[in-house]
Amino acid sequence: MELSANKMMEQTHLTGRWFLHDQSLMSPLLGATLNFTIRNSATLTIKTVNHANPLSPSQFFTCRIDNGAWQRWPASDGSMTLSLSPACHQICIMTGGNCDLDDVWNKNEVFTITRMEVDDSAIIQPLAKSTRVLVLGDSITAGCWVAGKHASVDYRPESNYLAVAQDCLPQIEIHRVAYSAAGVLRPGTGNVPPAHGWLNQLNAQTKAPVKHFNLVIIALGVNDRRFSTNEFCLAYRKYVKAVQKRYQCSVALMVPLLQSFAQEIKTIGKEMHIPVIPTVDWCSETVDGLHPSQRGSLTAGQHFAQALSQLVQ
Known about the structure:
6-stranded antiparallel beta sheet; 17 strands; 28% strand; 7 helices
């Protein structure tokens, strides 16, 4: 039995941002997921297409069964087949690696799943959680460079600090909308505009639908350190107000791990009566002085999980 892109939209629960195009399910974002249960199927095959820039390495996907080990594959392989027992299994499929050259804003050089194949007797149902948190961020939130300095192949959205926190807090569903190099003033890679531009837009052509969240966390600022303090504070306040207007829920501010604009963010939080997540000494190790390594992601993720549990209790 084949599940088309439309069927995948109906029968799985999506996190991050996805859209339908050319009979495919697409996302511009690292860490976007499909979540569902499946029973009565010996296999699950996920069909993918590599829509990376011609000069980029292949994009990657990753998936796991029943919260087990993650299995990664290059989108250029065309498919991944999982072996299953007839019992009910939880499946998470995640976008796992891309490159700064991929034009995710204008050209649909994005993650693409064309269909899934299961046994005819398979029963598939979406798997969602009632408490949902959205993190708006940059490459650290997205999961870039966690395993090394090679684009795409060394990205690990499945085990960066957000993923670690997700495993620590199974009752909470953590969504991410994050772009490499992005800030409230600085554009992201892939022709992505500064954060205000992608708050309401999925890409240059399409508005992003508004989903319900219990909490939205703004994890931006480190990429704006080339700008003056005054410029940053003006843009950051404006962005916080836009986030509040869009989502109509609680908002929290997260100080960048590098402590960029830490005092300014704390002051803005106090002025606007918004909680601020401090991050001093959260990251024990980085790959390049900025991006947490796998070990750094583990410690940062444990700290983030503790902070998040206090915010949503």
